């Protein structure tokens, strides 16, 4: 009988090409924000009925009612996924766990859950992705943070700019959209001291900025106190640069040069000023500067081996392909 034979209905045919977009949403003590945040996100995504959304919340060991609030969301909305850590592992790890859970999405959007990253901006990201951009990173046109936070952030990016082996855009947080192929590449980087925005830059592909105004936090307080910010900055600088190790030997050469200058002075006095004794400080200085200079140079030698060991233990992928061996584009989905 013909009606028993299965032929795809028009709606099924449409569903094959529907894009799936996953939001990765780290949560740490956001009990007072979650309901408002999720409401705003649902409202923003509503006009894109042509897209299948998934909302992956990662509870990073919150101490307040965040987890209960998230479980309520899951009850009410089947598109919500909730992961919960056994303790607080930190924002970067929470985002990583979310990315690991969202590998079947055509694109992922990483976003804070304190309403500092406006949901409407993420919808603009989706349009840019549909136009072929692989990574859309949100760049702050303005921000409402304290002067201290802005000043330290400026200093951090200034240092990073000078040291890092790759170019990492300024005034950019982790609020971004990544195409599936980029997210899969990022997932291959398993280093423990994670600096995700650096990893995404390292991966390459077509990356573009989207300017936005960052709002103040809706409720609660920052989960990034100074202590966590310093550890995070260290991950960024040390994770993408071995320059401080190279400075050791440069300093060694500089100090050795001082000892040579002093030696020339000592010889000069000895040879051309017979009536004058060589000053004791100069004589001792030659030995002191020479010895400490040599020691620093040797430490620099150890440092350059250490730098290599470090890079090897990071065990990053050697390269990321944009075209496969058969000349096909990697990870292109029907939806674009
Ligand atoms: N967050 C997290 N784990 C932490 C700290 C923060 O998952 O240990 C989350 C937090 O819930 C928020 C995002 O990461 O969604 C950014 O954190 P926060 O707003 O506290 O940082 P700030 O915006 O002040 O830099
Ligand atoms: Mg915030």
TrEMBL record:
Keywords: Glycosyltransferase, Membrane, Transferase, Transmembrane, Transmembrane helix
Topological relation to the membrane, as annotated: Multi-pass membrane protein
Annotated Glycosyltransferase 2-like domain residues: 24-183
Cellular location(s): Membrane
Residues spanning the membrane: 251-269, 281-306
Cellular-component GO terms for this entry: plasma membrane
GO MF term (any one): glycosyltransferase activity
Source organism superkingdom: Bacteria
Family (UniProt): Belongs to the glycosyltransferase 2 family.
The protein, known as: Dolichol-phosphate mannosyltransferase
Gene source species: Nocardioides szechwanensis
């Amino acid at each position: 009988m013909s009606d028993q034979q299965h032929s795809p209905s028009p709606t099924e045919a449409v569903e094959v090409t529907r894009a799936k977009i996953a939001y990765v949403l780290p949560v740490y003590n956001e009990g007072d924000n979650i309901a408002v945040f999720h409401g705003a996100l649902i409202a923003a995504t509503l006009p894109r009925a042509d897209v299948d959304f998934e909302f992956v919340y990662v509870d990073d060991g919150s101490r307040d009612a965040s987890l209960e609030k998230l479980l309520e969301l899951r009850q009410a909305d089947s598109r919500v996924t909730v992961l919960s850590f056994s303790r607080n592992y930190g924002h970067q790890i929470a985002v990583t766990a979310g990315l690991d859970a969202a590998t079947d999405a055509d694109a992922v959007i990483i976003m804070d859950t304190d309403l500092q990253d406006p949901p409407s901006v993420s919808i603009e990201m989706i349009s840019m992705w549909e136009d072929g951009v692989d990574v859309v990173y949100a760049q702050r046109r303005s921000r409402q943070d304290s002067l201290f936070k802005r000043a330290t952030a400026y200093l951090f990016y200034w240092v990073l700019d000078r040291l890092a082996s790759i170019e990492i855009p300024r005034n950019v947080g982790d609020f971004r959209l990544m195409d599936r192929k980029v997210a899969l590449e990022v997932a291959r980087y398993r280093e423990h001291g994670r600096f995700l925005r650096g990893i995404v830059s390292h991966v390459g592909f077509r990356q573009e900025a989207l300017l936005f105004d960052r709002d103040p936090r809706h409720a609660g307080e920052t989960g990034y106190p100074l202590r966590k910010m310093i550890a995070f900055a260290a991950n960024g600088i040390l994770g993408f640069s071995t320059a401080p190790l190279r400075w050791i030997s440069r300093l060694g050469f500089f100090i050795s040069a001082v000892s040579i200058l002093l030696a020339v002075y000592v010889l000069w006095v000895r040879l051309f000023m017979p009536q004058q004794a060589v000053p004791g400080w100069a004589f001792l200085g030659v030995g002191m500067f020479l010895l400490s200079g040599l020691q620093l140079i040797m430490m620099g030698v150890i440092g350059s081996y250490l730098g290599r060991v470090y890079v090897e233990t990071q065990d990053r992928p050697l390269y990321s392909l944009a075209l496969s061996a058969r000349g096909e584009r990697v990870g292109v989905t029907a939806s674009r």
